[in-house]
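Milestone 3.1: sequence recovery, worked example.
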């Protein structure tokens, strides 16, 4: 869901768990909180609520990241490159 929000130029807070850090670049396109740490999540959300310029910057940078890395063309190119690397 982070990528969808970022595609809509919305700032995001996610957990530093699983594949989420591959989508959210901490401090660049959003903020990452420690897993199962409600206080850390609350602090990160509060930081965004208090800083309009940060929300705008994360929103714009997040959208740019999604358009660069997560379009069908970009994903297909990476999958094709991975297959070619295995087959050669």
């Amino acid at each position: 869901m982070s990528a969808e929000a970022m595609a809509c130029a919305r700032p995001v807070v996610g957990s530093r768990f699983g594949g989420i850090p591959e989508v959210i670049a901490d401090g660049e396109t959003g903020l990452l909180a420690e897993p199962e740490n409600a206080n850390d999540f609350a602090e990160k959300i509060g930081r965004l609520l208090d800083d309009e310029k940060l929300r705008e910057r994360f929103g714009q940078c997040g959208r740019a990241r999604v358009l660069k890395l997560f379009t069908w063309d970009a994903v297909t190119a990476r999958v094709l490159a991975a297959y070619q690397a295995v087959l050669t």
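The chain is about 65% helix and 10% strand. The domain at 2-87 is CATH 3.40.50.2000 (Rossmann fold).
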